[in-house]
Every structure is written in C-alpha cells, then in structure tokens.
Write a structure and sequence with these properties.
Elements lengths: L1 E9 L2 E6 L3 E6 L13 E7 L2 E7 H4 L12 E7 L2 E7 L1 E9 L18 E7 L2 E6 L1 H5 L2 H6 L1
Parallel strand pairs: 2-10, 5-7
Antiparallel strand pairs: 1-2, 1-8, 3-6, 4-5, 6-7, 9-10
C-alpha cells in the first residue's frame, strides 16, 4: 500500500504529514496571541469565520520558537474533527512512499522530538521524518485555545 505525504521544512529538517489529514496550506498570516497558553501555541487566526489555533511546530518539537516572516506557511490540518494550524518554514512537495517503508526512529537518549514521530522514510535521496499528528496536536491547553 502507498502513502502520500506533504513534505515541509522546519529548522532545516524535512518532515512529512499524511496528505489526507491536510485541509489546506495558507500563506503566513499574523496570529493573535493569547494569554496563558503553552509556549508552542503561537496564537489564533480567523479562518473564514472560525478561530483556528496555530501551533509553532519548531517550538512544539523542542527547538527555538519561530520568528515568522512572509515566507513562512501555515498548514491547516484536521485532527479528530478539530482544525489546527502548523507554522512551517516552507512547504516542499508531495512524495509517495510504501507503507512498509516507514521505519521506527532510532532511540537516542534525551531526544524530545521522538514522541512526535510516527517514523522515518527515505524519499528522493533524503530522509523524511513523518509526524504523528495526534501527538503533535495533543494537549488540553490547545483545545482551550480553540
């Protein structure tokens, strides 16, 4: 069986998400910051009348928070009926991988990113880290932001 992934870049690393979980890709829009939300919640934007919480993916993965520019993008995903935005540096392309080509990430000590990865896959001479959207979107604080 084949899987199609949208690939994108965050902090110079290539990540992928299943294309079926992506609702749309938007150009960068400034967010409205909210008080008392986790450090990785950049804020909210108005998506055609709906309040959309936006996650800073770099901060969520344990890196420095993103300083957004007009070159950044927001990937709108749908997780368990809830829309969320993910700030990424850039969107690359669509790749197709065999489902059995997804490998478990190596267990490295203290790597804060491991819980967020579904696995790794080789695509076009590069390694794509496939994100586990459920883990990235988890957190009751995020639900409260919506």
């Amino acid at each position: 069986m084949q899987r199609e992934l949208i690939t994108f870049e965050v902090e110079g690393q290539i990540f992928g998400l299943d294309i079926m979980s992506i609702r749309e890709i938007r150009a960068w829009t400034p967010v409205t910051r909210l008080p008392s939300v986790p450090h990785y919640v950049a804020g909210v934007v108005n998506l055609r009348g709906t309040v959309l919480p936006v996650i800073d993916l770099a901060a969520r993965l344990g890196w420095e928070p993103t300083v957004p520019t007009p070159r950044h993008a927001i990937i709108v995903v749908n997780q368990d009926g809830q829309a969320r935005g993910l700030i990424v540096d850039s969107v690359s392309d669509i790749v197709t991988i065999a489902s059995d080509a997804l490998q478990s990430p190596p267990a490295t000590t203290g790597d804060a990113m491991l819980p967020f990865l579904e696995g790794l896959a080789a695509a076009d001479d590069r390694m794509v880290m496939v994100l586990d959207l459920k883990t990235v979107s988890a957190g009751e604080e995020l639900a409260e932001a919506a």
